[in-house]
Amino acid sequence: MRILIAAAGSRGDVAPYTGLGAGLREAGHEVTVATTDSFAPLVREAGLGFRSLPTRPQAQQGVESRRELLCTAAAFVTELAQGFADAVDDGTDLLLLSATTAPLGWHLAEARGIRAIGVHLQPNAPTGDFPPPVMGTRSLGRFGNRTAGRFALRMADRVYAEAVASLRHRLGLPPSAPSAMRRRQERANWPVLHGFSTALVRRPSDWREGLDVVGTWWPYLSPDRRLPADVEDFLAAGARPVFIGFGSMAAGHGERLSRIAVEALRGAGLRGIVQTGSAGLAADGDDVLTVGDLPHALLFPRVAAVVHHAGAGTTAAALRAGAPSVPVPVTADQPFWAGRLAAIGAATDPIPFASLTAERLADALGRTVRQQAYARAASVAARHMATEDGVCAVLKALG
User: Which residue spans of the chain are classified as CATH 3.40.50.2000?
Assistant: First the structure.
């Protein structure tokens, strides 16, 4: 089967699909990933075909207002839609659509007569169990949570309205609003597989048929990949260090975050590995090492704790390694995942990015590293995650 996986956004929105795609390829399918050019090396390293989507991930500067996020998102998907149709050719048998690309991919599937399945990284379908991930962590009660979930979907429909109108015109389809297509997909129980662990979010009992949680899709990792020699030397030189990194978040905050990281590590009496990331973190000294992009799967099992922005992928990687977390959520769904980590006991209470200080971070690190309950909870989650096989679940769904 010729499968096209379509995903767009930051690295965390794309990398999981390289592991999913590699697993599908190993099962005998021909797999191509359509995403932005900056992620072409990740896709090709996994042995997958690559097609370019005409947009680029938006760097997050920090805490943005909801209106700013909506405006940014609308510009993002409008640009995306302009070339999405070119990425899907007549030889495609199946579309696997991320949450970002699904509202566009539905129309391509309709026009081309192609089967489509959702492969989402967040639990965006309305439920009474919790509010939508993009709207924070405070429960509004079962009715309120479901109402908020429906409201979040209507806001997404507004974001995609212009892009959908343009795409349907180009495809020769009659006009149809995003909300109409979404409701049609819901009535048809359009299948959506969610690539996160039930250790963090169990399938809500009030979800409709066709919505399933299947386990995490891990970014592809070459079997011969190793940590750099300087990292190995640092790990061997003393006690387990703490990892501090914010991924693609917090661009422009590098100087502040670097100072906070060093002061917190030394205040807690800990060694640290600081990842540069989009923020541009950097620190020097015998007790701290600055690194670039490294596979979480290789590094996290060897650290004492992980300080991170609570993106879905980093959250899962820390749990998989059995490493306790200090979550510092920045925006979007990150407070949701941070809250989930804390709820299962594998992390301290989240420290909002805007409220982060060296003193607060040092205190959280001291508790995380020295109170074994956090590590025990993370280890329990890691054992649960080891029983899940997200790739196998997708293969079963293919029929």
Answer: 2-194, 229-385
